[in-house]
Design brief:
four-stranded mixed sheet; alpha/beta; Nucleotidyltransferase, domain 5; five-stranded mixed sheet; kinase; EC 2.7.1.8; 12 helices; Glucosamine kinase; 9 strands; globular
Length: 298
């Protein structure tokens, strides 16, 4: 670890679909940005490291700085999946190229950004779903267990369940609504066997691409799509109320599905929603500025 005065800060936000980086000067002025592929160690460590380095070098290049600048950067990074100890340890052991690297979850940096480093609660609804509350120096995280066992209300959860419903409909066990036809069209399949073969074992990001279609069909009262969206919204409602139990002064939702699922939430949740003050990447910049940050209390 170097003791030099920081010249640059970088915030990195990595999720199941993409990784973003924001480079600032010592005063926090934006210099450059970058975006690359997925960065969730739960989906592959090598892929995550490649995405992190790719978006970091993009941000440095976008700022018009030489690639060698990276060893002068104090970085803060939040990744999906780092709530699980094994993946956190993987990243903690990384021989990274930065001057310093603070690591945490994507949820933590989202919470920092949403509330400008102050107290508050946040729910991420993107490829995955999870919630965090930060009040009086104490953080609590809920969800974020991965779409195979959790992540209800997320894009990946909606997508894989749309596949499951479609397979049952094609077998004559559920009504064959327009959602089924749209799923078949998007996956370029014609039969249940083709659909099962094409979609089995796909990445969360691949399943999440079906989520917008589920909402579109739910908005026109498609029976199967509506059932899924109601179930997903119910989980987000219960997650939000769990966070409210800690009396956060602010509450925000972020992620690609946040504005789409918000209309389906209960009124007591919607009335507490407030816009995020800053992006997760800026939250990661704030995290980069911290000396010896502590890990989340899970």
């Amino acid at each position: 670890m170097t003791t030099q005065q920081p010249l640059y800060y970088m915030g990195i936000d990595g999720g199941g679909s993409k990784c973003r980086a924001l480079l600032t000067d010592a005063e926090g002025k934006e210099l450059g940005t970058g975006q690359s592929g997925p960065a969730n160690p739960n989906q592959g460590l090598d892929q995550s490291l490649n995405s992190i380095l790719d978006c970091a070098t993009q941000a440095i290049d976008n700022a018009g700085l030489p690639a060698s600048t990276i060893d002068k950067v104090y970085a803060g990074m939040g990744l999906a999946g780092l709530n699980l100890p094994k993946y956190y340890q993987w990243m903690a052991n990384w021989d990274h190229p930065f001057a310093r690297l603070n690591i945490s979850t994507d949820l933590h940096i989202a919470c920092l950004g949403a509330h400008g480093g102050g107290d508050g609660a946040v729910i991420i609804t993107g490829t995955g779903s999870c919630g965090m509350v930060n009040v009086k120096g104490q953080r609590r995280q809920f969800g974020g267990h991965g779409f195979t066992v959790g992540d209800q209300g997320s894009g990946a959860w909606l997508g894989i369940n749309a596949i499951r419903q479609s397979l049952q409909a094609l077998d004559g066990l559920l009504p064959k609504t327009d959602l089924v036809e749209r799923v078949l069209d998007l996956t370029q399949c014609q039969t249940a066997r083709e659909l099962a073969q094409t979609m089995a074992g796909q990445s969360p990001a691949k399943y999440a691409k079906l989520a917008p279609v589920v909402f579109e069909q739910a908005n026109v009262k498609d029976e199967l799509a509506t059932e899924l969206v109601i179930k997903g919204a119910d989980y987000i409602n219960r997650l939000a109320r769990r966070l409210f139990g800690y009396n956060p002064p602010r509450f925000s939702m972020i992620g690609g599905l946040a504005p789409i699922i918000a209309p389906w939430l209960d009124e007591d949740v919607k009335e507490r929603l407030q816009p995020s003050l800053h992006s997760p990447e800026m939250g990661a910049v704030l995290f980069a500025q911290q000396d010896n940050p502590k890990r989340d209390t899970l």
